[in-house]
Amino acid sequence: MGHTSLEKIIALQKKTSQIRNLCILAHVDHGKTTLADCLVASNGIISSRLAGKLRYLDSREDEQIRGITMKSSAISLHCTTGGNDYLINLIDSPGHVDFSSEVSTAVRLCDGAIVVVDAVEGVCPQTQVVLRQAWLENIRPVLVINKIDRLIVELKLTSQEAYAHLQKILEQVNAVTGTLFTSKVLEERAEKNAEAQSIRTENDSGDQVYDWSAGLEETDDSDLYFSPDRGNVVFASAIDGWGFRIHQFAEMYSQKMGIRFWVLLKTLWGDFYLNAKAKKIMKGAQSKGKKPLFVQLVLDNIWSMYDAVVTTRDKEKVEKMVTSLGIKVMPRDLKHSDPKVLLSAICSQWLPVSQAVLSMVCEKLPSPAEISAERVEKLMSVGARRFDSLPEKTQELKKAFLDCSADETAPVIVFVSKMVSVDSKALPQNKQRPLTQEEISQRRELARQRHAERQAANQSAESPGSADAGDALCAQTEALSVKTAVEEENKEHFVAFARVYSGVVRKGQKVFVLGPKYDPSLALRVLPEDCSVADVLPSVPHMACCTVDSLYLLMGRELEELEEVPSGNVLGIGGMEEFILKSATISTSPACPPFTPLNFEATPIVRVAIEPKHPSEMPKLVRGMRLLNQADPCAEVLIQETGEHVLVTAGEVHLQRCLDDLRERFAKIEISASEPIIPFRETVIRPPKVDMVNEDLGKQHKVAVIHQVKDEQTKYHEGVQVDSTGLVTLTTSNKMATVRVRAIPLPEEVTRLLEDNVELIRTIEQFSLLAWEGKTLEINQKILENIQDFKVKLESTLQGHKWRGAVEHIWTFGPRRCGPNILLNRIEGYRRPSVWQCLEREKEIEKAETTAFRDFDNSIVSGFQLATLSGPMCEEPLMGVCFSVESWDMMISTPLTQQDSIVEESHLQSQIGEYSDVHVSSTSSNRSRSRAETAGGSLDCYGPFSGQLIAAMKETCRYAFQAKPQRLMAAMYTCEIMATAEVLGRVYAVLSKREGRVLQEEMKEGTDMFIIKAVLPVAESFGFADEIRKRTSGLASPQLVFSHWEVIPSDPCWVPTTEEEYLHFGEKADSANQALKYMNAVRRRKGLYVDEKIVEHGEKQRTLSKNK
């Protein structure tokens, strides 16, 4: 097919039913970009000879050098199948785990996906991730099994063995899809059962019959799985340019053999063989030892082709094949020294991969008009909000989504998934275009005039001074214009990567830009009815009005300017950088809700502090980091309390790319990045039962510990007492308040539960804060149900005597009121509004009358928040710690009138004598307040005393933490490595050197590859991938994904205490302590005191060899 004109693509954009929006998804190095090259070559954009070598959609220099895709990029292709013209909006996405956020941005804009699987490696970790992402976005996948040539050339399998291998790969892919489907059905079934249970309890009468079916039997999953006879699987070798569906062979053989097409289609894949005598297709090839039909009619032909062209290089056989296939091969291809060139020339004509893939895409993937109602509701329901709970006008927009109409009356709905940074030279308006004949003649005339003027000026010798002045002025103006032109040229432009879901977007059109936190119900209350973007409107949070500057057709490395784009198309929108940070929803209707946030698989965990080489260039760095934050969907930019500019990325490769972008594109200055800032967490554990040499800790040692604690009492400052059980008592410096706190380690399940429900905890705390201020927060039923489930789970995990009633006594969570630590209220008689008050709305009014917040309640909470935000070991946040406030007593003297702070002490004493002391104990907060008020004074909860109480609470929590066995928690990566048997030992050596722990090792069936699953501390992961590749000569490459936090078993503050430990470790105990090493590194980075000996031996260095 020749090159498609822009006019043809614009015409196809208007036919919604013939548009296909799809992305290519796969594990790294499975051949996505090579396949994309073959599809691009089919449109004449690149030469078919360069397909697979050029990697056209990898437009960045670092992508070409590394050989991996880092940014998802789109291109529009034209395809003709079955007499119809189709427009294919193709998005190529990265496979590397560090760039999985780019996959999320691509998947959101598509209706279908091509999942590519390597025929040798099979289903890899990232294949499972992309299948899950496609499932979560409700998009339909089709399968391409790529690199089948490797089975012939590298593994040297026979066609029969290759068939068995391909069957296994298909089973693996279907197993992943089946797991996702089963989990969804079971989830829906559980919801139905819960609803049925609630109805049953309401109308409880008669016997109960339980339905044991899981719901899997009734649910139709026939269109879910990949099967060659359904036409949703292509077998291909993109690098050699061939690919096929069994439809092509069924069509071919139905004419040759006289067997009906649909019979061949059903039997070409499966346990069927051809009985030559009876000329019938029979079942049971495996049991009868016969060749399956797929091997006999399909694979044998391909194997013999490779044998003739690549292995034996039999020219006669090749010529026979070329003649029988009826294709033309150029003489230079026949004579080429590389057999792959000839192979590619034959196969790309016989079984062109682009034809097979594009015909499958057009037949099997849905058009934008076929979007499902379930997907629309999912996109419109932000957070835990149900579609039913959205305003009526918003619900009416569902019809606009489903119609996907390009009418004038249809509301415009566009979703921007990311902002793409584009160099100003790449914009169509700045691109050099070929000049027409008229323009050439005009420029020639202008040049002649200028030349004539210059000559006239040179010849006129009457006023030479004025001529010089004129020349100088011209030069100055020219220099100024060049400077502004260069500045304009260097400016970074952003193009919004988007898709139109409804209506027509036009250049110069006014639209609403809706941020991710926009609430349509609030906007509809504030804005007048039937308002439009052109009206003067009151400001609404997270909503802005703007004009669409320019529209672009995305063509890989190039952009083409458009005047309008109808619904169902992928496009680029210019001039949105001022209004959109990373993603947004654009609409002409204020009732439109923001789309649900993108599902990012990778968590940003790798941090570096960045500073410019020259301090004067700081403003450029700040601007550059702002641009980087906008251009990268996953990168985060923070300014810490210390003033450091911190960049947070998903991994080492992602970090390197971000730093390169900062240097070369966004800041354009020299920068220096710190060593990666490794995050740690601090926690406490239950007292260990064995010592460091695995001896039972006897009574003798326990006595020693108690003595040790008594000795340590002297270390604490005045007013702090720590008893043997770890209860810490601290009195404020003015002796007016005493707090007793105990630290308790939380069970691991509870910590995980708190981590997974951060959003719910945030909602609970928000409700409590607003209730304290006398306001209410509207929470929909779905969130309330989730909070109730969360509470029930907490109660079930916090079992045992010491946790009895703990859930009801939760005071707050921390740090930042939503972290994995708990503050418990164990103060006798102090009843404060429950943290779960959002679940008890009926009792709320009643409670407000009888109980009010204690004046200094917030001081205790603030102290706890500060303590959990930075622990005593190395100022890192705490995790999995529960602080129980056992008692809290206050003695407050309130003078009659508010006096100046500088009052004579004697005068103050006489005033205190006049009025009786107010003793605020834990049992009588309201009574004490009323007594203070009747005395004519008032408790100042914002005065200096509240600050002292915050500091006291913080210190008490820190001492309580130190009174227990404390440990560091390290962030852990899960690491999946594919390696051959010869290099397995070297892989293990690198893992053990870097404190890694192997969880599982299994051999991949049918290959000599091993899959090793391990966990590795993030702190040890830098340079890990490079070292593995060096040590294994490139035969193994790891995939690192952040997994969890894990307690480092060694105690960073450990010193030998028992006799056995002294014997084993010596008095100095200076053997390597991993936790101490990490702790000291963090303390050194933060400028905290590090307890280490700078000089080991004070004497002068002596030589040990004898003097000669």
TrEMBL record:
Domain of life, source organism: Eukaryota
GO biological process terms, semicolon-separated: cytosolic ribosome assembly
Keyword Hydrolase attributed: yes
Name under which the protein is recorded: Elongation factor-like 1
GO cellular component: cytosol; ribonucleoprotein complex
Domain Tr-type G: 17-369
Keywords, ordered alphabetically: GTP-binding, Hydrolase, Nucleotide-binding, Ribosome biogenesis
Region (Disordered): 450-469, 914-935
NCBIfam families in alphabetical order: small_GTP (TIGR00231)
MF term (GO), any: GTPase activity
InterPro entries for the chain: EFG_II (IPR041095), EFG_III/V (IPR035647), EFG_V-like (IPR000640), EFL1 (IPR056752), P-loop_NTPase (IPR027417), Ribosomal_Su5_D2-typ_SF (IPR020568), Ribsml_uS5_D2-typ_fold_subgr (IPR014721), Small_GTP-bd (IPR005225)
